Amino acid sequence: MSQNSIHWFRKGLRLHDNPALMAALRDSRHIYPLFLLDPWFPNNTRIGINRWRFLIQTLRDLDNSLKDLNSRLFVIQGSPTEVFPELFEKWNISRLTFEVDTEPYSRRRDEEVIRVAERCGVEVISKISHTLYNIDRIIEENNGKTPMTYVRFQSVVAAIGVITLHSKDHEEHFGIPSLEDLGLDTSSLGPDLFPGGEQEALRRLDEHMQRTSWVCNFEKPQTSPNSLNPSTTVLSPYVRFGCLSARTFWWKLVDVYRGKKHSHPPVSLHGQLLWREFFYTTARGIPNFNKMQGNPHCVQVDWDSNPELLSAWSEARTGFPFIDAIMTQLRQEGWIHHLARHAVACFLTRGDLWISWEEGQKVFEELLLDADWSLNAGNWQWLSASTFFHQYFRVYSPIAFGKKTDKYGDYIKKYLPGLKMFPADYIYEPWKAPRSIQERAGCIVGKDYPRPIVDHMVAHKKNLQRMKAAYAKHSPEENPIEKGQKRKAKSSMEMPQKKAAKLY
DNA sequence: TGTGTGTTGACAGG
DNA sequence: CCTGTCAACACACA
């Protein structure tokens, strides 16, 4: 039997570890590798120019790889339910294959496409390969409940057992558009530090996996948010687009770890992949995951609406050099270290500006090369102490935090060259520098660089109280009255006992 | 229902 | 480098 198949690339933009693509190849006479530029995405999400470039580079790389196999990538603009019926008929298609995607829009889209395919008599095959595990099964194994902690998540996946890795492996052509073809403004393109594509992804993976002791000793919290070159792998954009299979990454790490002492989840590189899996699971299980309202696990906070403060943050004009340097790196290069994300996210939300994490989520969605719906929403909830993380009294200092790993402010000077001449004593707080030093540095605060938009000490103390009030009102699954009584009992009884126990 | 724990705080003090 | 304190959270498990 010979068939004509379409393999629909969405994420999973690779040839390696691609079970759905393999399913398309089986017994096929013709296979049509297809990528749709679905207008839903630019119409409903924010895609910055740097991520557009990453996508186009990735598609070119995929096309090149397919050329080596005597094939080409077909790139078509249009919504799936309109495009597919035409293509099914035009190419006489009997089979459609694609990778499972767990995001809300993707699930709705795929359900509709499956219905369209059924009507056209086209068999649909979908395979899991974007995640290590079957995300739905994780929730099932946890009695239908979404695991809410990493520890809980780990115990559930441990029970599921080892993940598997898929074994390795025309006529007219619809070309890959350029950024200009797509009508995009390319004037703000940043340096091309992380070019898209499977070949680049595999090259970078290989490069890092050769550093065996670095891999074995990797502990995420020990890596620096403000080194001049990334202190971590920056494989995240590649995993996000599926240029690199998370499963291939996982098993490469198994090879490197074998027979050696190595770090473990949550801090290890394996642990990082499991964090991704954790947030994919919670994003699948929790309704309205990218919103506060209607999200049953999210603490409801009375965030301020303050467009001036928000744009100062997103445009690197807060007057805190550490924060502004990070936001500059983000905008120019499309990637910042995870702890740098913590620092700016805390600053925007519960730490200083008291602006909703949803606003920060939008900015990251636009600017990060690795912006991923599930991870972005999950991490913003984490950092704003809305869901998953509740120790809201742990606040990052926009002054002190960066000093731990960059005493002299070299990172700040790289991204904010206007502050280059400031002495180390004042680089994190230039407004404290005497006028003479500001003049010598050629940078007057309030004129050449903004004054701080908030007093951190005042703001964070006030915000702590506002968080306390929000938590007092928060009652995810319980009767609020009952909860209030429990809280009272705890605070009057437990604390003195604890202190007494310590004294004796 | 109490207790231990939680990838990644800041700060003072030894 | 480590520790405890600050003031205090929810989740998970026994």
Automatic annotation (TrEMBL):
Protein name: Photolyase/cryptochrome alpha/beta domain-containing protein
Basic and acidic residues compositional bias, start-end: 474-484
Any single Pfam family the record assigns to this protein: FAD_binding_7
Residues given in the record as FAD binding sites: 232-236, 272-279, 370-372
Residues covered by region (Disordered): 469-504
Ranges of residues in domain Photolyase/cryptochrome alpha/beta: 3-132
UniProt lineage: Eukaryota, Metazoa, Chordata, Craniata, Vertebrata
Source taxon at top rank: Eukaryota
Family: Belongs to the DNA photolyase class-1 family.
